[in-house]
Amino acid sequence: MTILLTGVDGYMGWPTAMKLALRFPDEVIVGVDNGFRRLWVHEVGSWSAIPIYSMDERLQAFKEVFGQENIIYRHLDLRDYDVVKKLVEEYRPRAVVHLAAQPSAPYSMLSPRHAILTQENNVVSTLNIIHAIREVDPSIHLIETTTMGVYGTPNMDIPEGFFEVEFRGRRDKLPFPNQAASWYHYSKVHDANNLLFASRVYKIPITDLRLGVVYGTSTEETKKDPKLATRFDFDFWFGTLYNRFCAQAVAGYPLTVYGKGGQTRGYISLEDTAQTLVLAVEKPAEEGEFRVINMFVETVSVREAAEKVKAAGEKVGLEVEVMTVPPPRPEAQEHYYNPDNRRIFELLGLKPRYTMDKALSEDLEALMKVRERIVAKEDKFLPEHLRRTRG
């Protein structure tokens, strides 16, 4: 049997491939990627703080460290339907774990070209996978990571996908409204809508994992050998907030808090992210089921994250300052935020390994070993127009 994993060369993809391969040693993990993430980060002038190796070198290291050869790499573009259908026909996976995406909100807002690229890449790829599954075997379980960002920051509690509504004396269960804040996030809104429709009309079992902000330098598997490392982006465009704060602390660069710093989001470690994806494969959705799971462990504001990083940095001897810069795009700087996340624990059974507080010392120590690489690209912590506001 096989499991198809898209985005295998990415931050989440490579650690997840290894965790799947070790959890299901008698199955083949078919990892797919077109290498775009490396190109996009190069385009904005940055690089991974932690050096990363080619997929061939990673696979050889995986064999040497774990004694297994059940990960296959296929370099291809998911925007080509014929290629996707042929792939699904060839391997007939029992599950597709769809992580491939242009994942950056700031990158999607750079220009019309970047907005179109983001929507085309993300939406077309997902549609191609949906239709390939429909044509080849509608019983294949499709798991996709969308994003908690589809919900926005409404002034009410956020359910897991659906909620009960009463209007003019009638009640119904409806999808929760989407109020995304970037072209990237709206690409995932479109994906979520398309996944819901596909589950209804094609009876495909679908799990929509609405992912919070992922953080961390490693998983248990990536620690085993430098060649098994996953990427760690820290620039303004591709570095998530916690990761960027940790890199700034190590570089001696002030932590850049946007506006008032009250922007609150759900967070989950890279280790727990990969483990959740394995659990989603182990516990599939039913035929025709559209299962939404809010995928985060804790909620933290920008200001709170900065305070946590500052305190942890000072414990390991770093001098950490915090500075305020204007928000890079329109968003509420202070808001109510109370999303549900019961299903990740009750339905999938995740037992989190990390909280932000627990992860910080480990991540800072890992980044201190590559400080020179971070300092060499510290001008990428902020775009030029925000760098001018520094101080």
Assigned CATH class: Alpha Beta
List the strand order in the largest sheet. Answer: 3-2-1-4-5-8-12
**Can you count the beta strands?**
14
* Helix and strand run: EHEHHEHEHHEEEHEEHEEHEEHEHHHH
The quaternary state of the protein chains shown equals single chain
Principal-axes geometry comes out as: globular
Helix vs. strand class: alpha/beta
| CATH level 3 topology | Rossmann fold
Given as residue ranges, the uncertain stretches (5+ residues, pLDDT < 50) are: none
Task: Specify the helix fraction band.
Answer: 25-40%
Q: Largest beta sheet, briefly?
A: 7 strands, parallel
CATH architecture: 3-Layer(aba) Sandwich
- What is the assigned CATH homologous superfamily? NAD(P)-binding Rossmann-like Domain
Overall mean pLDDT score? 97
What does this structure look like?
It is a single chain. The protein is α/β, with parallel strands linked by helices. The protein has a single domain (about 1-385), classed as Rossmann fold, CATH 3.40.50. Helix content is about 40%, strand content about 20%. The protein has a seven-stranded parallel sheet, sandwiched between helices. Strand 6 and strand 7 (about 170-175) form a beta hairpin. Helix 6 packs parallel to helix 7 (about 185-200). The mean pLDDT is about 95.
